[in-house]
């Protein structure tokens, strides 16, 4: 149903309403005429409104048609542009393909010509090779004839002459090789080791190191010798209780105002020293009191170990270390290695590693961390079956340390493969800290044996008259026979001895090998 029909229906209904009212009243005809006139007027107005509405709808429809046609034309124009662009690209591709085909054809022609040229050259080479082979056969025949003639003239066979020539050339080659090796070593020292020496020297200079050496005894000072009687007790019961509780030996002798505490474990010695100090201050010295004080001291020493570890990592600026590792660092304070305090050694190595890593442009924090932890395997409370380096690596892995730190700990004695640049730095700094003068002590017998073996190794070479190991075995001075050893051979002898020392002996630092050859002319005036 359209809008016009609806309006007409409404008008008709209104007219009918008016007409119905008029008929119902039946009062007069004027009312009826008035109603009809109003109905006609309403109908006329409705038709006029419907006509206006129709015009508005038609105008709106035209506007929509024009808008849609404009959008269609724009879309058509855009698609036409895309088609033109695609057509242009297709033409360019066809042009490029044509050019490539032309280039391929030219390349095929050049390749064909090159093949022909190569075949021609191969033919020429084959002919020349045949000519060379022919001349070689003729030369060999002539050489054999000349060799036979030379053998008859010199009364030597070809093998004997060849051996003499080889010996002469070998001697000359050895002399030249020695000179070349010496020159190469000198050049390498001037170039390759210059920066390395600079880094090591600056690192050592910037690191303060103490030369204190710990022993297996501690000295407890007392104010008067009267206290010795209290410490010994009746029939020695107090000193026996002390020794049983601490596990060390108390030596009370005629030494004035001193008691010696002897034991291989530094932790036990420290517990004994602190316990004895508290007992002397308190004055009550008897077995029950001794056990009570020793137990308290053991608890306090554990706290002190943790405090030492925490202070060490704070001083070095190391963060995020596991509490168990901190405790192990504190235990290093009461452990020594070859007479060198382990904590002091580890602190020194950490500082050396940080300095050297910074100079080389590596991670100084990881290097310092690895330097501090490189000997934690030595303070493990259980008896280790593994070497301390591998045990330390396992402990570091257990407590989630960085892989580079773990590898540096395990590889600093070459017991596993090095996988990072920090590992050789830890190894070098450990050697620097352990081999510097005054850092460690060796047994006198092993020290003498090492020097004796060093001299015996040098005297085993031919031409060596005397050999002296000086400067604690860091320099080897060798006197050779000037009649049997020339200057070139002296240089080669120094090189050979240094190489044999590197292969067969173990030593800290480096050994300087000096070969001295001198000519002496002696005459007597009568």
Automatic annotation (TrEMBL):
Its EC number is 3.1.-.-. Keywords: Cell membrane, Endonuclease, Hydrolase, Membrane, Nuclease, RNA-binding. The keyword RNA-binding applies. The keyword Signal does not apply. It is an enzyme of class 3 (hydrolase). Residues 94-122 are annotated as: Disordered. InterPro entries: HD/PDEase_dom, HD_domain, HDIG_dom, KH_dom, KH_dom_type_1, KH_dom_type_1_sf, Ribonuclease_Y, RNase_Y_N. Residues 97-119 have a biased composition (Low complexity). Residues 342-435 form the HD domain. Belongs to the RNase Y family. Endoribonuclease that initiates mRNA decay. This is Ribonuclease Y. It comes from Aquirufa echingensis. The gene is rny.
């Amino acid at each position: 149903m359209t809008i016009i029909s609806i309006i007409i229906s409404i008008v008709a209904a209104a007219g009918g309403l008016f007409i119905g009212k008029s008929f119902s009243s039946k009062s007069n005809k004027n009312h009826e005429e008035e109603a009809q006139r109003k109905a006609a007027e309403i109908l006329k107005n409705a038709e006029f409104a419907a006509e206006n509405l129709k015009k508005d709808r038609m105008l709106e429809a035209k506007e929509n048609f024009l808008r849609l046609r404009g959008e269609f034309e724009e879309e058509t124009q855009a698609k036409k542009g895309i088609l033109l662009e695609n057509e242009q690209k297709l033409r360019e591709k066809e042009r490029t393909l044509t050019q490539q085909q032309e280039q391929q054809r030219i390349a095929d022609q050049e390749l064909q010509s090159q093949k022909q040229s190569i075949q021609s050259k191969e033919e020429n080479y084959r002919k020349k090779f045949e000519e060379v082979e022919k001349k070689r056969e003729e030369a060999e025949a002539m050489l054999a004839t000349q060799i036979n003639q030379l053998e008859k003239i010199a009364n030597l066979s070809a093998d004997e002459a060849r051996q003499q020539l080889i010996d002469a050339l070998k001697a000359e080659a050895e002399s030249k090789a020695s000179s070349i090796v010496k020159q190469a070593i000198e050049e390498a020292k001037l170039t390759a080791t210059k920066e390395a020496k600079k880094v090591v020297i600056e690192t050592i200079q910037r690191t303060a190191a103490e030369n204190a050496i710990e022993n297996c005894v501690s000295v407890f000072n007392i104010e008067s010798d009267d206290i010795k009687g209290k410490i010994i007790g009746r029939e020695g019961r107090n000193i026996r209780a002390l020794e049983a509780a601490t596990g060390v030996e108390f030596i009370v002798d005629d030494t004035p105002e001193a008691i010696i505490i002897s034991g291989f474990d530094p932790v036990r010695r420290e517990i004994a020293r602190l316990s004895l100090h508290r007992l002397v201050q308190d004055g009550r010295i008897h077995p029950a009191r001794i056990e009570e004080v020793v137990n308290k001291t053991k608890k306090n020493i554990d706290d002190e170990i943790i405090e030492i570890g925490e202070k060490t990592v704070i001083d070095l600026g190391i963060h995020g270390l596991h509490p168990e590792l901190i405790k192990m660092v504190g235990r290093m304070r009461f452990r020594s290695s070859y007479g060198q305090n382990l904590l002091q050694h580890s602190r020194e190595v950490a500082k050396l590693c940080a300095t050297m890593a910074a100079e080389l442009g590596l991670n100084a924090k990881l290097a310092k961390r690895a330097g501090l932890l490189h000997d934690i395997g030595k303070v493990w409370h259980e008896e280790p079956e593994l070497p301390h380096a591998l045990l330390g690596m396992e402990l570091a892995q257990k407590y989630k340390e960085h892989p580079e730190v773990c590898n540096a700990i395990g590889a600093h004695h070459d017991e596993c493969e090095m996988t990072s640049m920090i590992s050789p730095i830890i190894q070098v700094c450990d050697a620097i800290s352990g081999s510097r003068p005054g850092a460690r002590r060796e047994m006198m017998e092993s020290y003498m044996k090492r020097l004796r073996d060093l001299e015996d190794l040098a005297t085993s070479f031919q031409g060596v008259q005397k050999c002296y190991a000086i400067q604690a075995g860091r320099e080897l001075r060798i006197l050779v026979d000037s009649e049997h050893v020339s200057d070139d051979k002296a240089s080669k002898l120094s090189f050979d001895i240094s190489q044999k020392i590197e292969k067969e002996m173990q030593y800290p630092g480096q050994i300087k090998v000096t070969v001295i050859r001198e000519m002496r002319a002696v005459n007597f005036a009568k």
